[in-house]
Amino acid sequence: MNYALKLQEVCKQYKGSDFALDNISFALPKGTVMGFVGENGAGKTTTIGCILNTLKKEHGIIEIFGKEMNDDDVSVREDIGVVYDGDNFPNYLTAIQLSNIMAGIYKQWDTPLFYEYLEKFHLKPSQKLAKYSKGMTMKLAIAVALSHHPKLLVLDEATSGLDPVMREEILDIFLDFVENENHSILLSSHITSDLERIADYITFIHRGKIILTETKDNLIYNYAVLRCTEKNFSTLDKGDIVAYRKKDYQIDVLVSDIKKARKKYPKVVTDHTTVDEIMLLLVKGETV
Amino acid sequence: MKGLLKNNFMVVKENMKILFPLAVIFGVVVSVTGNSSLLSIFSLALSPILSILVVLCLRKESLSKWYKYKISLPVKRKNIVQSYYISHLCWCAVSIVIVAFFMLLTVIIHGNQYFYYGFRDAVTLVLGGGVLAIFIGAIFYPLYYYLGAEKIEIIAIISLAISVVIIAGISILINILVSDNGVSDTTYYISLLAIVGITVVAFVCSYFLSRCVFQAKEY
Fold first, then answer.
1. Nearest CB neighbour to B63, from listed A74, A91, A154
2. Per DSSP, which regions of A40-128 are E strands?
3. Which of A63, A75, B133, B188 is surrounded by the fewest CB atoms within 10 Å?
4. Which of A14-18, A65-69, A213-217 has the lowest mean pLDDT?
């Protein structure tokens, strides 16, 4: 399989902090979207920083389009579109000026395409970015990320701050983008409904460790939550339990094979689950 | 690189809209009055003021994630550093041109009555401010990369102070080294060249130092 992005045992530690990325490994196949999920401070932005070389990893391998990217690999970065959460661009610029700057940086900068996106996103080209709302700055960042014909989009909370209507439109644009089998997206997000809509793979990170990487379909269709009583729980085969969480009178147990669970534990209520619930169980729950 | 330079120009442009008319008004006043003290102040102060203004504008960049975003663009880190040094030199050149223009105008209107023992000619006056402006950049950028944008104001003040001390120190040293019988033209211009040479070397060394610091920097 060809990968747009591959991380192998990436480690990163901050001086004077307990937090560390601990042997992060995952791979994003070409033509797919990977949702990168985790609670605040889980290590999503640090991982993205290591990928984009804004942070220096201690060890491990990060390959983009099959090649480790260092500072001199300008051509690799020509093919990457980036969106950070918050203000990506200085607010003294207008969108027109930003386009002029980007045209002097990206070889493949497509000014007409950029203006198309501005129109589509209802962004005024001559308005100072200082006057843009948060949603507008995010839309602008997405327009910039797409206007140089990248092959890989790295999006750090790119849909946060957007209203549901605009998020829908942006997600459609991302889906159009990955219709080309050479295009891929790594999308970190708290909004798991977005990931359920567009992601092919979902990777969960918690306290600097990857706790699960799965295809979304597998998570949605095969993973399940058993609603157990204490008595039910004690009868479960430990090998079936991915994670569990005790509530007042119930124990929610995450399992990875719904058919097997329904057959094996017919008396236990077994529900399909959501990415949100899986994240909660993995992050707040316990493992056997 | 072209895009980075454009951005560096944009960041300063707004402030220049204020400084440039003020510089022109001051220049016109100097040319009309022909006052030698005003001419000296104008010539020696404009370039350093502009230089300080240019470096302080970096604060605007730090208000967004642009400093981080730039690293993910298809440019090398050394290009980012280079772009600041080139922009700084360009603005110094602009200020030198403005000073030279109004000085020429003043001399044309009032005649050559300004250059005596201390500042023998227009070149010294024009270069004096320019050298100080370049030195400010040479001290500022490595400190900026090392200490970060949060301390930008104090770094600018320190850069100005250190630059003044260095230039004054070199001048005093040269005065001590040459004879007491007065400075000959040859010694004067050799000294001037030495100061310019030291400034150029300091600026180039500063660039490599900034590159080195920025290369290891994380955002």
1. A91
2. 59-64, 67-68, 80-83
3. A75
4. A14-18
